[in-house]
Amino acid sequence: GAVVSQHPSWVICKSGTSVKIECRSLDFQATTMFWYRQFPKQSLMLMATSNEGSKATYEQGVEKDKFLINHASLTLSTLTVTSAHPEDSSFYICSAGGGRRQPQHFGDGTRLSIL
Amino acid sequence: AQSVTQPDIHITVSEGASLELRCNYSYGATPYLFWYVQSPGQGLQLLLKYFSGDTLVQGIKGFEAEFKRSQSSFNLRKPSVHWSDAAEYFCAVGAPGEAGKSTFGDGTTLTVKP
Description:
The complex is a heterodimer. By secondary structure, chain A is mostly beta strands. Chain A has strands spanning 4-7, 10-13, 19-25, 32-38, 44-51, 57-58, 67-73, 76-81, 90-97, 104-106, 110-114. Chain A contains no helices and 11 strands. The relative contact order of chain A is 0.33. The termini of chain B are far apart. Chain B has strands at residues 3-5, 10-14, 19-21, 24-26, 32-38, 44-50, 56-58, 64-68, 73-78, 87-94, 102-104, 108-113. In chain B, strand 8 (64-68) and strand 9 (73-78) form a beta hairpin. The interface between A and B is medium-sized, with 27 and 25 residues.
């Protein structure tokens, strides 16, 4: 069964609203989670590393104020797309795990469509 | 910095035929290597992984991959493809000690002909 749960799986909203996406580790505690963005027919691009109890680490070119990450517990990280615009429409995927000699576990992704 | 190249954007094979998807990586030492499969609108499912040891790795769904250090490759193979294998396949490289952060290739789309 799934070890990482991501919610919602699909969201459609108007331009200018903020959208929160949740990523939960179900069977284990994750001090680190990762947020990826995937454009159609393209690969996954790492946006940020979410660290429990501290600030997220953002990859170069990712707007920290646009993509707010909160990792308040060992099983939950949230990504909030603030003041979303059509160009933010994408498929967002989270992952957890990947410790020593362990693979990452990916959520099923969230399809975000901004009208 | 690590990088991954998947030379084939799109591959078409007949059902029952063998399959090989290519993956080349760039990394200064021995990396962690992964193959994932993604169906449309879905997340990623791990097919197999290599950390160390035996260079021929067996995965789920009848897939295997071979790590070749001299060629910096980690090609994915399956002896007989099923129609349900049609999907997007991603090779990924992770640096040991980087808390699991992976760099992904651009993916290979597999189409299976009846």
